[in-house]
Write a structure and sequence with these properties.
Strand order of the largest sheet: 3-2-1-4-5-6-11
Structural class: alpha/beta
Distance between the termini: 43 Å
Helix content: 25-40%
CATH superfamily of the largest domain: NAD(P)-binding Rossmann-like Domain
Oligomer: single chain
Shape: globular
Largest sheet: 7 strands, parallel
Radius of gyration: 20 Å
Number of domains: 2
Number of strands: 13
Length: about 325
């Protein structure tokens, strides 16, 4: 039985990755931060699952800012695969908490790599990179060879982690792979991220709890995919004979405005009657557009996206309607149902 260690397991990607690995017969260990309140809603179904009597899912208190705890748990668990998904991952928040962001997303990666370097058994390491590393893009679409020009503390920290992963791979022979994942969404996306903010906002308006939705830059364009498909790409990267770096993306760009228009149209609403622009949500430095070329991933690891942009908007909206106690089949317009 393959044993995997996952940082950031309580997040969107960590929870979907845990689902995938358990379905493949893995023993899964997740590292979670100790706090005054629990934030495990995305993985509650795993350790409450009556179909897991053999105990293949475990949580341990640790932190990417604490190298001693990382070394301790790595040696206790002795995983064959390590997936580093933990970090302060909100781009907007990184402007307000740059030091903490750098410590988790950047130095946290280095601490984990250093722990793995001294492991006495072979470990395969996955580093979660981000399309935000491309920043002020120099070419479109972006590939594994495109130059990074980060435009936020988060992106700078991710570039550090990406380059350290390559450094440890080349200097010490570690099996260390970088995934450069473009935006990927789902019903488990955090409520402060713009896609989930939009679908939750539509649900709140339909439920009569809100009248307005406040957003920032509607003109930013992103390459949006479906998170469960993207975590499969992470797993595929660690099954290859040699480690490498891969862009994971759909190859299509859509603006925030398009996402808004799709979500409100599904609900039969005119978004211009409900959306207000709030300057507080603009960033000091913006990334105007991101679009990835996943040709290398298609060829080398056999991965490709399956969920379209419009299907993604719909499934997220349906989930938030159900969470609000509403019936999507009754509220979505016939033309888009």
């Amino acid at each position: 039985m393959t044993r995997a260690l996952v940082t950031g397991i309580t997040g969107q990607d960590g929870s979907y990755l845990a689902d995938l690995l358990l379905a493949k017969g893995y023993e899964v260990h997740g590292l979670i931060r100790r706090s005054s309140s629990f934030n495990t809603s995305r993985i509650d179904h795993l350790y409450q699952d009556p179909h897991e009597p053999d105990g293949r899912f475990f949580l341990h208190y640790s932190d990417l800012t604490d190298s001693s705890s990382l070394v301790t748990w790595l040696n206790r668990i002795r995983p064959e695969e390590v997936y580093n998904l933990g970090a302060q991952s909100h781009v907007g928040v990184s402007f307000e908490m740059p030091e903490f962001t750098a410590d988790t997303a950047g130095m946290g990666t280095l601490r984990l790599l250093e722990a793995i370097r001294h492991a006495e058994w072979p470990v395969r390491f996955y580093q979660a990179g981000s399309s935000e590393m491309f920043g002020k893009v120099v070419e479109s679409p972006q590939t594994e060879r495109t130059r990074f020009q980060p435009r936020s503390p988060y992106a700078v920290a991710k570039v550090f982690g990406h380059q350290m992963t390559i450094q440890y791979r080349e200097a010490y022979g570690l099996f260390a792979a970088n995934g450069i994942l473009f935006n990927h969404e789902s019903p488990r996306r955090g409520p402060t991220f713009v896609t989930r903010k939009i679908t939750r906002g539509v649900a709140a308006i339909l439920a009569g709890r809100e009248q307005k939705l406040y957003l920032g830059n509607l003109d930013a364009r992103r390459d949006w995919g479906y998170a469960p498909e993207y975590v499969e790409a992470m797993w595929r990267m660690l099954q290859q004979p040699e480690p490498d770096d891969f862009v994971i993306a759909t190859g299509e760009m859509h603006s925030v405005r398009e996402f808004v228009d799709d979500a409100f149209a599904l609900a039969g609403l005119d978004w211009q009657q409900h959306v207000e622009i709030d300057a507080r949500y603009f960033r000091p430095t913006e990334v105007d557009e991101l679009c990835g070329d996943a040709s290398k991933a298609r060829t080398m690891i056999g991965w490709e996206p399956k969920t379209t942009f419009h299907a993604l908007v719909r499934l997220m909206l349906e989930a938030d309607l159900r969470e609000a106690g509403l019936d999507p089949s009754r509220l979505l317009t016939a033309a888009t149902r």
